[in-house]
Amino acid sequence: MTRQTRVAMMAGVGVLTLGMGAGLLAVFGLPVSLGSAPAGPPELQHVPQEAAVVAYADVRRMMSSDLRQQLGALAVTPQASTPNEFEQQTGLNIEQDIDSVVVALVPADAGVDGDRSPHMVVLARGRFEASRLEALALQEGGAATDYRGIRVLTLKESEGTPAALAFLASDLVAFGPAPMVQRAITASLDRRNVLSNTDVMRLVAQHDGMHAWAVGRFDDLMSAARVDPAQAPAGLPAVSWVSASGTLGASIDGVVTAEARDEAAAAQLRDVVRGMLALGQLQGGNAAAPATLAQAFQLSGEGRTVALSFSVPTGALVAMAQQAADAREARPAR
Amino acid sequence: MTRPYWTSAWRVFDLSVGEMLWSRRTVFMALVVGLPVVVAVIVRVLDVFGIAALRVNGQAMGGTSLFGLMLWLLFLRFAVPVLAVFYGTALIADEVDDRTLTYLFTRPIPRGSVLIGKYFAYLACTALVVLPGVMLTYFLLTPVAQIGATFVSLLIDLGILAAGLTAYGALFALVGAWFRRPLVVAPAFVFGWESVVLLLPGSLKQLTVAYYLQGLVPHAMPADGGITALLQGLVTDVPSTAASLGALAAITVGALWLATREVERREYVLPQ
Predict the structure, then answer these.
(1) Is A195 in Cβ contact with B146 (below 8 Å)?
(2) By percentage, how much of chain B surpasses pLDDT 90?
(3) Which of A93, A168, B23, B41 is deepest in the core (most CB within 10 A)?
(4) Which residues of A touch chain B, with CB atoms under 8 Å apart?
(5) How many domains does chain A have?
(6) Domain of A188: which CATH number?
(7) β-bridge partners, A164
(8) Which domain holds residue A290?
(9) In a domain, A279, yes or no
(10) Which residues does A149 contact at the CB level (< 8 Å), separation at least 6?
(11) Residue A105 falls within a domain, yes or no?
């Protein structure tokens, strides 16, 4: 065998070895980056693989937005300047201490015992006083245990599945029914998480970078909303996946997307939405703010996809809130 | 004194692997294997710019699904049999055409070891070009987040491709040893007989290699509903994994045994 042949064969073996190495690193959980990172926030590594609905909100950005400040000023009840009871007990100010939240729903038949409604886990990133929360849980009759090296606080429940809180990292907690919290821990440690769920991640990638988004299987969303399929409108087209996302700035921009089961169902859904938009414009009448809202929506989509995008100026929302506040004040007190 | 069989096969392997790797066939092989890699690079570049390279029913096809489709159509149903046809049939036929068979057969080595050594040289050449090509295509098409979940499937896919190269190669080594014009018979088998028989009901499809390879593929397809369902819909009657592996092993061993027997017994008439 000549040197040239040996080099060529070693090159082939080298590519295979490098590929094997990278693949096995990915399988056994060591970080592999080829210039791109998975879509969505890092909390998704704690979301179970079978999740049918996943939602994310950048709480910090929403709380600090101009819109929120303006709407807060119009609130009926002025914002309390002193800490409330929850904050006093937990040391947690939801408006200031929570940065982002991920909520995941796992269908009931996907491994968690109990009732048939979907199981939820909430992953919150922010600043938490672990020792204070643990002391509070123990004081209330709960328990503090370690599950696969993660501190888990199980809260005392008189009936049903007890709730649990796990400290996944110094700035990340998981909250939900105890079995779901354990699955959130397992999902990350065993690398069997939603990042390998191609259906969900495909939709997450479409909305990555938005301030808030939600993706999910339509049936499971209906189930989570406790809507009985038998009670659903008869003419509702067959929808398989829905997703929504939005950003908050000078305007609220967003898009709601539905994937129908086939093109005929998508066309039918477009007709339904088009009719609803027309009705909204009619009901808006001459009032400026509702008319602005109704005209802010645009219907699009092709094939099996139906997309409803909107861009609502925050000024219009503040104007509507102002009108409502004025109407409240004008109403005689009982 | 005749050298031991496997020592002789090793010497022939050592001699043949370089000849095969730097032959004109390798250019053809590079084209066959390079095409999916180029397609994968294009898909990856389009993906960076947010453009879906392939849509099915208006839906963008994911990288994992696209890889599954390319593995099935480009590698397993095209590249593997075509490479086996070109290399496998040439193991003995090339030596006859080049009138160099005499130099090998007059050496103090068993005749059968010539074919065995050349067969392993074919396997080394094709496997070391095809399998890295598949590996590159996989890493280009599969999203990083899905590598952990799909890599084991890739290893199974690589095993299936290696099994395909092994079985087809042995079969066409036999065709090359038996027939005077193997490049007529072998493509007719792959693109005629196998293509037709696989679509027919009945048990005739058991007389193909593709039937047993297809028996392995659905188990190894990446778990992505659409494409798996599509391909499994095309292949309604598939043997079990154990039966497929057994049949492929039997084809390989049987074909190689018959081919070495033929080479040892036959008096080759070299063209003048």
Answers:
(1) yes
(2) 17
(3) A168
(4) 1-2, 4-5, 8-9, 11-13, 15-16, 19, 22-24, 26-27, 29, 32-34, 36-39, 191-192, 195-196, 198-199, 201-202, 259, 263, 302-305
(5) 2
(6) 3.40.1000
(7) A154, A176
(8) 233-334
(9) yes
(10) none
(11) yes
* pLDDT category of residue B171 using cuts at 50, 70 and 90: very high
Please indicate, yes or no, if residue B270 is contained in any of the structural domains: no
Cβ-nearest to A8 among B21, B152, B155: B21
Which pLDDT value is given to residue A33? Answer: 45
DSSP secondary structure, B129-165, as one string: HHHHHHHHHHHHHS-HHHHHHHHHHHHHHHHHHHHHH
The whole-angstrom separation of Cα B37 and Cα B141 is: 9
Per-residue model confidence (pLDDT) at position B134: 92
Confirm whether A284 is domain-assigned: yes
In a domain, B272, yes or no: no
Q: Which domain holds residue B243?
A: 5-265
Of B55, B128, B148, the CB nearest to A26: B148
Contact A226, B170 (CB under 8 A): no
Q: Which residue has the tokens 């994994």?
A: B241
B29 belongs to a structural domain: yes
State the Cα–Cα distance between residues A286 and B63, nearest whole angstrom: 50
Cross-chain Cβ contact B143/A201 below 8 Å: yes
Give the list of residues 6+ apart from residue B179 with CB closer than 8 angstroms, or none: B185
Helices marked H in chain B: 5-21, 24-48, 63-70, 80-83, 90-97, 101-105, 111-141, 144-178, 182-187, 195-197, 210-220, 225-234, 241-265
- Least confidently predicted of B67-81, B187-201, B214-228: B214-228
Query: Are A173 and A56 within one domain?
Result: yes
Clarify whether residues A180 and A250 are in a common domain. Answer: no
Q: How far apart are CA B241 and CA B156, in angstroms?
A: 12
